[in-house]
Amino acid sequence: LAMLSDRAAEVIAGIPGITDVRVSRNDGTPQRELTVDRAKAADIGVSVRDIVEALETAIAGSRAGEFRPQGQSYRILVQLDDARSLNIEDVLDMTVRSASGEDVTLRNLVRTDAGVGPTVIERKDQQRLYTVSANVAGRDLGSVAADAQDALDDIPRPAGYDITLAGSVEEQRKASREFTLALVLSLTLVYMVLACQYESLRDPVIVMTAVPLAAIGVVLLLYFTKTTLNIQSAIGCIMLGGIVVNNAILLVDQAGQLRRHAGMTTSDAIAEAGRRRLRPILMTSMTTILGLMPLALGIGEGADAQAPLARAVVGGLLSSMLTTLVLVPAAYSLVHRDEPANVSE
């Protein structure tokens, strides 16, 4: 883990946009590692268990049983009287008895090595881990995460070890999935409401053609203003699902009324509906756009945090306002043949 974390920190440090790379691992505490020489112990006739029990008794104490007076239970721990003051050399001077009855010092059977022990052991999902953290500056989180993932995938690692991106990247991916679900659900609900009101499955489809057109304006305005697609702009896109259809509703509803009540053909009805509804469409769109303009420009304290939302809505409304007057009539003409509808009183 230490080797992989150091290698991961070294690799991501060279990625543009990544700063302040840190590893959660600290220097640790010095320790002495005792290793039993099994081959020598077998030759002399001393079991590894006897050696381990002697070391355990000298250093940490070994459990010898329980004392149970009057229904109470007390653990019996056997330990050298001066265990706290012993150093490692004194422990190794202890002896154990071999199978032949001879006393053998632990020094002849145990190898000592200097090492470093961790002060804290981190775990997640019952797996030990080290955390390599860094800040992002000058680039968006998504592109930096993609470059980091490509670099980390090239690091060879043994079986059972893995390197994963977490933290803000994990939250962003989770938010992206939730955003997609919310957008699909909002468009579905809008279609259901329109289908109930129109009592038709075709007219809501015509109205909904304004939604993909709004995406053109969102992408262009975010690009020219150098705004990333973040949580705020995603919320703006969800709002657009219910806002941009308003203009198409005005147009389609007026055309349907002219066909039903005035007996106009489809081409005449859609042309007259465009003439009658041009001013209401411009008024509803422009009032919303102008109302969001201060927020989109980032005017005022704290407005920068909400600016992506306003820019997404403004871009979508501008695009849908211009294309609704052209594409929606074309779609309406394709769905409804150029024949007069039944005239109703």
Strand content: 5-15%
| Average of per-residue pLDDT values | 82
Described by the principal axes of the CA atoms, the overall outline is elongated
Largest sheet: 2 strands, antiparallel
Which structural class best describes the helix and strand composition? alpha+beta
Termini Cα gap: 81 Å
| Helicity, as a percent range | 55-70%
- Provide the succession of SSEs: HEEHHEEHEEEEEEHHHHHHHH
Report the count of strand segments: 10
Continuous helix count: 12
Tell me about this structure.
The mean pLDDT is 82. The chain has helices at residues 2-13, 38-44, 48-59, 88-92, 141-153, 168-198, 203-208, 210-224, 231-243, 245-261, 266-296, 303-335, and strands at residues 18-23, 29-36, 62-67, 74-78, 95-97, 103-105, 110-117, 122-124, 127-129, 132-136. A two-stranded antiparallel sheet has the order 1-10. α10 (245-261) runs antiparallel to α11 (266-296) and α11 runs antiparallel to α12. It is 57% helix and 14% strand. The protein is elongated and about 120 Å long. The chain is built from 12 helices and 10 strands. It has 345 residues and is an alpha+beta fold.
